[in-house]
Design a protein that fits this description.
about 80% helix, binds tryptophan, globular
Length: about 450
């Protein structure tokens, strides 16, 4: 089996793939939205601190489990287990992550489908297909099914090709495209009236809000979602890293890219909102807070694009392509979790397993689409506010309390011989053992 497993062919391949998983709608939509509804820069500040102090250590735990186990999440965790009880616990955590990834994909695919549908609108308008252009941006069951199916098809298409030829190749193509699109859009928005005011709202923190419990919970949840934690995804990506690579620095680089792109997305979205306001678009809700969530992406920004005349068609197109690309490099990682599990544990051939699981998840999406108002929120909350933090916490418990310290060190030393004498090894083991699980638990319990 070892010979037939995939592996990232280069460090840049891994960085692009893991950053591709991390950078998604969470960064470009979720982060600016949360920033808008949580007092601007205060949220940004807290997010930065939590991402590096809590999410990065937990991220390292998951990567390490995977690279040690060289297998899907369940098998990797079981390799670290010494008693039958550990083994059952390992199954629970690993399989829980796989299910969580599938649940997330089932609603993420719908949101991503909307991004594609909004990207086709300017194209249809340019081609004077006006009724079709109106149809793709109007809520309807048929539209949702069509574009979710299209998006799932793309995801399955990439994952069927495996690690090097699918995940790595496409991440290396799509991530640079994403960064270029983002920078071009920021540069353009900065030339417009109102952008400076938005920049000010984004970067001037109201320090008094920094310790608000709701803000802390949102920031932690956002950081965990953004690094794709608690879903077996980073375990499986870790298992595709060569033993010659320095995990500590790879993990840090991916975290840095993820956080930077979220920050950049804020530089685009928040100023764009104030530009929209300068054009007469309403950007504040009735309670005085900035409009966030789907209203921001599907109402405020499109109204802004409308004020730009024919230039707006191009800006809208590039913006929604940016969103779609970000979503695709993330969704492939969500599908890889369940696929690697089924391929390795049930000896099903990869292409077959991918199509099968893709279809199952698409059926789950159909259930959500059939009752969008209730189900979307329900599944999203279940998976991201309960599933992810609990499983991420249990991964830390595994590494901190079940795995032997000497074995952890041995694994870290591969590709990083001097790790024992560095700062990371002085802090991280006890940090993962005590601080991470406690902090996650506190935030979680509080959110109940
Ligand atoms: N991190 C991605 C984002 O910010 C979402 C994501 C990708 C994800 N893979 C995941 C979330 C796995 C949870 C689990 O949009």
């Amino acid at each position: 089996m070892a010979a037939s497993r995939g592996e990232f062919s280069s460090r840049i391949g891994f960085i692009m793939a893991a950053a591709g998983s991390a950078v998604g709608l969470g960064n470009i939509w979720g982060f600016p939205t949360q920033t808008a509804s949580n007092g601007g820069a205060a949220f940004v500040l807290v997010y930065l601190v939590l991402a590096f102090c809590l999410a990065y250590p937990a991220f390292m735990a998951e990567l390490l489990i995977g690279r040690y186990g060289q297998a899907n999440a369940v098998t990797s965790l079981q390799k670290m287990s010494r008693t039958p009880f550990h083994k059952r616990f390992a199954f629970l955590v690993g399989f829980g992550g796989v299910v969580c990834a599938a649940l997330i994909l089932s609603f993420y695919g719908i949101l991503a489908g909307w991004m594609i549908s909004y990207a086709t609108e300017p194209v249809l308008t340019l081609g004077s297909a006006n009724s079709a252009a109106a149809w793709v941006v109007e809520q309807s069951m048929a539209r949702n099914i069509l574009f979710t199916a299209l998006f799932m098809f793309l995801t399955v298409f990439v994952i069927r090709r495996g690690v090097e030829d699918g995940i790595e190749k496409w991440s290396k193509r799509l991530m640079p495209l994403l960064i270029v699109l983002l920078l071009v859009l920021i540069a353009y928005v900065f030339t417009l009236d109102g952008a400076a005011q938005g920049l000010n709202a984004y970067l001037n923190p109201d320090i008094s809000r920094v310790l608000e419990p709701d803000l802390l919970i949102s920031a932690l949840g956002q950081a965990f979602f953004s690094l794709s934690l608690g879903t077996s995804v980073m375990v499986i990506y870790g298992s595709y890293i060569s033993k010659n690579e320095n995990l500590v620095s790879l993990g840090a680089q991916v975290t840095l890219i993820d956080v930077s792109i979220a920050f950049l997305a804020g530089l685009l979205i928040i100023p764009a909102m104030y530009v929209a306001q300068a054009q007469g678009v309403a950007i504040f809700a009735e309670d005085g807070s900035l409009i966030s969530g789907s209203g921001l992406v599907f109402t405020v920004l499109p109204s802004l694009f409308d004020t730009m005349g024919s230039m707006g068609l191009f800006v809208a197109f590039f913006f929604f392509i940016l969103m779609s690309v970000a979503a695709l490099t993330s969704s492939i990682s969500m599908l890889e979790g369940p696929v690697s599990y089924v391929v390795e544990r049930h000896q099903i051939e990869r292409k077959k397993a991918t199509t099968m699981i893709g279809v199952i998840i698409f059926l789950m999406s159909l259930v959500i689409i059939s009752n969008l108002g209730v189900m979307l929120d329900f599944v999203a909350t279940l998976a991201t506010e309960y599933g992810q933090p609990i499983i991420a916490m249990l991964c830390c418990v595994f590494v901190g309390w079940i795995w032997h310290r000497s074995e952890i060190l041995k694994e870290l030393q591969q590709g990083n011989e001097t790790v024992e004498h560095g700062f990371f090894w002085k802090i991280w083991p006890w940090y993962t053992k005590f601080i991470c699980p406690t902090a996650i638990a506190i935030v979680f319990i509080h959110s109940l």
